[in-house]
Amino acid sequence: MKTRAAVLRDVGKDFEITELDLDEPKTGEILVRFVASGLCHSDDHLRTGDIPVRYPIVGGHEGAGVVEQVGEGVTRLAPGDHVVASFLPVCGHCRFCARGQTNLCDLGMFLLDNCLPDGTFRLHSGGEDFGQMCLLGTFSQYGVLSEHSVVKVDNDLPLEVVALVGCGVPTGFGTAVKAGEVQPGDTTVIYGIGGVGINEVQGAAFAGARNIIAVDPVESKREIAKRFGATHAAATAADAQELAQQLSNGVGADQALITVGVATEDVITAAFNAIRKRGTVVITSIGGPGKKTIQLPSFELTLFEKRLQGALFGSSNPFDDIPRMLDLYKAGKLKLDELITTRYKLDEVNQGYEDMLAGRNIRGVIIHEH
Ligand SMILES: NC(=O)c1ccc[n+]([C@@H]2O[C@H](COP(=O)([O-])OP(=O)(O)OC[C@H]3O[C@@H](n4cnc5c(N)ncnc54)[C@H](O)[C@@H]3O)[C@@H](O)[C@H]2O)c1
Ligand SMILES: [Zn+2]
Ligand SMILES: [Zn+2]
After folding, report:
1. Contact 241, 261 (CB under 8 A)
2. What is the largest CA-CA distance in the chain?
3. Dist. CA 68 → ligand 2 center (Å)
4. Which residue has the CA at smallest separation from atom 19 of ligand 1?
5. pTM of the entire structure?
6. H/E stretch holding 135
């Protein structure tokens, strides 16, 4: 069949909308009609080269849709099922899955080539194979996905909000609750209030943080953060550090969580300076693979036992935490509808990223046409 998709052909190029040939699902795969896809900052890293992938590639890794067809051996899913794509595939059997660290599943080794787990591609044009961002490629009307990447959801949930629990929501929530281990009464600083950071605010509030300091140069972001549970806001890291000191009687923040658009030495240093003894910096933002974005005095790390923690998918487990996020939403305890700032057509994907980079969106979402 044919599908229209937003494709990146090389570093530095914008998305190009093109028609591709899509193969039938093979064993263990399903055909999904994507309904909605969030515009996460990580797809922009494919454009800048901060995530080094094989090109050409179909963008998008935060999507939800409806199963149209299942390949051989798929028993867990059936046509008509509503699903959300997990940006990390989970095999269930590798050493990391067996330990319950499914975000670190060995299938992650395909995240740079972005073929399916059998090593081949389902999207083609003019004799060329097209990869799928995070093995998904949700900026396509249709996709063939491994069942390892697909979480079934209730059919009565709006798919545009379901899409957001594929990446930004559990990544942010887990950065605060799991990787950052926010405890009741904590003081938490959050750098970068985008689609991920806003969910750190929700997560920290949920875990009972007493002070949540949202840091973003964009004023509207600071205002929105307050609606999601931030108690304070700061335009600069220096102001945030001063606030954290004041609010903790000079002790410092318990956590500093980093979700700025691109990880930099400046923000990591600021976060390190803002935390207390035995406090934790969590780095969820991505910086380019060759860049030395961490330059810190080990003296302080050792004597104050400060901790630096990376977090992938908020150190969460997709098949456990994605349904949990939706259960909290259904119970009225997690805001998802309010995360969507602007809806776009697939053809407007570059405008969507322009808006994201200009700080106009919490989350932009593509609504697919069929
Ligand atoms: N580790 C993971 O599993 C994972 C998953 C998803 C996204 N990410 C990464 O998380 C980061 C954030 O993604 P997003 O989609 O929320 O991005 P976004 O562009 O929506 O939000 C980034 C925010 O950071 C703010 N910002 C920029 N510089 C800042 C600074 N110096 N101080 C404070 N705020 C600053 C921007 O104004 C913006 O509001 C990206 O690097 C993305 O690739 C990581
Ligand atoms: Zn993402
Ligand atoms: Zn695994």
Report:
1. no
2. 64
3. 24
4. 261
5. 0.98
6. none
pLDDT digits (tens, 9 = 90+) for 106-121: 999 999 999 999 999 9
Distance, in Å, from the CA atom of 295 to the CA atom of 92, rounded to the nearest integer, reads 36
Choose among 190, 310, 303, 197: nearest CA to 253. 190
Cβ(133) – ligand 1 distance below 6 Å: no
172 lines ligand 1 (CB under 6 A): no
Nearest atom, ligand 1, residue 362 CA: 20
> What is the position in ligand 1's atom list of the atom closest to the CA of 284?
1
**C-alpha span between 180 and 224 (Å, rounded):** 22
Say how far residue 238 (Cα) sits from the centre of its chain. 27
166: tokens are: 């594929």
Q: Is the CB of 57 under 6 A from ligand 1?
A: no
Name 127's Cβ contacts closer than 8 Å, sequence gap at least 6: none
95 CA to centre of ligand 2 in angstroms: 24
Structure confidence by residue, pLDDT tens digits, 66-103: 999 999 999 999 999 999 999 999 999 999 999 999 99
Per-residue tokens: 286: 């991505």
Task: Report yes or no: 153 and 77 within 8 Å, Cβ to Cβ.
Answer: no
